[in-house]
Fold this protein.
Amino acid sequence: MAENAALQQMISVAPKLAELSEQILFGDIWQRSPLSPRDRSLATLAALIALGRERQLAWHFRYGLANGLTRQELVEMITHLAFYAGWPAAATALACLPEEES
């Protein structure tokens, strides 16, 4: 699985970054209330799209779907961001969006 390969690469190259990601980012920050994981996925995806961090999008799209977002909601968020983050950012994000909900 690509996520596993990326994680293993991070562990082998930057073990401390992998540890911080697992323990602090996903073990603490993503678990805090009052935002749900679904809300955090939407906010994270909006930031990644606006900042042009396309290499992170595929994984976070799948994570967002697993956290309860629908493909239709993601398409609508991307359409909305076209006006705030720019057309190229929105078009790039659409190209990274999975074809179907998993």
Summary: The two ends are 15 Å apart (CA to CA).
